[in-house]
Amino acid sequence: MYLYDLDSKISSKSYELLNSHIEEAKKLSATRVSEIRNKCRDILSQNGIFEDRKNGNVYLAMEKELNNLEHNIDYYNEYLLEEVTKNKVELGIENISQKIDSLEQKFEFVFEKENIGINKANSEQKIRNMLFTYFESYKNTTIDMLTKSGYSLYTTEKIEEDILEFVTSKASDVFAEKIYTDRITAMQDLTQDLDNLSLKLVDEAEARYVCELNGQVFDELKDKRDSVRQKAELLESLRAQIYSLDLKTEELTQGTPIQTGDRILL
């Protein structure tokens, strides 16, 4: 039974959720890249390479490499979130179809809730590869530019040593773990939101089916009307509060209490 294009509805709503989660994931990756930026700037400044007219190009080159890193993180996160959504849409359509069949044929419906997994080892390795590629490019570009600018071998070797020391340290592992955790959290949150959407539309399928069976019109505007009513009640409450504040202000201005009904506003 083809019921009010619910398959199209779950698809469009799911991809709306996807887009919002992608934006949140991008904000997180920007935060992580900012943390890496701070570390890289520290390495330069601690070795006497400050962001001034002489070394501005070194910092600009670093920003270019950081932009590439952020793009790579975002690209891979987006791919994973899209895969979650695609699988959940297919499962959601199947759930709706099964729900309608259960109503028509009178058998018990069981909601299918497939958990989306991620290969931890593979994901962590991809993140480490991204970070290694960034730091390798950052190191090579920085050393090359400083050498051409006439800095001593001692300075360039010290910077190279500091970069390599950080890349092989526990601190570097912490960055990788943060990015991995962000990725898992984003996938879990999206999965939960998509499951909630699927459940909501399964319930809607049943409501529409029952209405159609009884010759009634399904009231799809009910939720919107309830929302408008709640907002109207909130607005009325705010107006009452503003009126009360105005009375208090008038009392303070005139120096006399204001009587409202059986109460005196203080």
Please characterize this protein's 3D structure:
- By secondary structure, the protein is an all-alpha fold.
- 80% of the residues lie in helices and 2% in strands.
- The protein has helices at residues 6-46, 56-105, 120-148, 153-167, 170-213, 222-254; strands at 258-260, 263-265.
- A two-stranded antiparallel sheet has the order 1-2.
- A hairpin with a 2-residue loop joins strand 1 (258-260) and strand 2.
- Helix 1 (6-46) packs antiparallel against helix 2 and helix 1 runs antiparallel to helix 5 (170-213).
- The longest helix is centred in the first third of the chain and has 50 residues, at 56-105.
Tell me the overall shape. flat
Q: Work out the helix count.
A: 6
Over the alpha carbons, how many angstroms does the gyration radius reach?
Answer: 29 Å
Unreliable spans: 262-266
- What is the share of helical residues? over 70%
Biggest beta sheet summary: 2 strands, antiparallel
H/E series: HHHHHHEE
Overall structural class, as computed from helix and strand content, comes to mainly alpha
What's the average pLDDT?
88
Distance between the termini: 65 Å
> How are the strands of the largest sheet arranged?
1-2
E-strand count: 2
How much beta, percentage-wise? under 5%
